[in-house]
Amino acid sequence: MMADKDLGYSFHSGQNCLGDGPLDVILRTIPTREHFDPEKVHLVVSAGRGTQTLDIHHPWRQGKQFQVCPGHIRISDRFQKVVNVFSFGGQVVITAVSDHTLCQFTSPAPFLEVTDGCPTTVLLVNEVDILLAEQRARLNPRTPGDFDNKLITIEPFLLFLSCLNAIRIKIVQSSHFSDSTWRHFKHDLNVEITRLQHADRWPASIPNLTELIGT
Known about the structure:
With 215 residues, the chain is of the alpha+beta class. It has 2 domains: 105 residues, ATP Synthase, domain 1; 99 residues, no CATH class. 33% of the residues lie in helices and 29% in strands. It has 5 helices and 10 strands; from the N terminus they run E-E-E-E-E-E-E-E-E-E-H-H-H-H-H. It has a 5-stranded antiparallel β-sheet, with no helix packed on it. Strand 6 and strand 7 form a beta hairpin. Helix 1 crosses helix 4.
């Protein structure tokens, strides 16, 4: 069930301090014109032994379930306005009926909506993008899909933990993160790590991205 069936997209509530719970996106035949009305969802998914770019639209007549590759999910409307959501990986189930197509994204890791209204989330996504870009450069893949093929094999929650730990270490080792946005982010990061520790979900040893992605 959608978190709010009257909206073009919505997040379910979650316990995570840094992101949101499952995401629903609804692509309608006739836009409501009362809010953001998605027309297309752009993302990378698993396909056979590799990955492929997928543009979900209404009416949808292809597969009903896909594994989502870590990265950006871009939701666009008829006026080229884009909602950008970062995912650490998960699943999308697509249900098409006569007047709409419903995309239901789930993951053991949070979804991060990149919006000017939440600068700490933007900062977190930027840092994760940097971490992944460093790994992509290290591997120097021959084709664009090679890196995604490795990334999609990582369990989403473990990828989330590895990124948080790398950012935590970066902050501890540097004194250049003193503006107000960084201070708020460091506070939220510490709160989330403490929450995970109390829930026994923060392992004593967390593999770094190089270990997770391999060579």
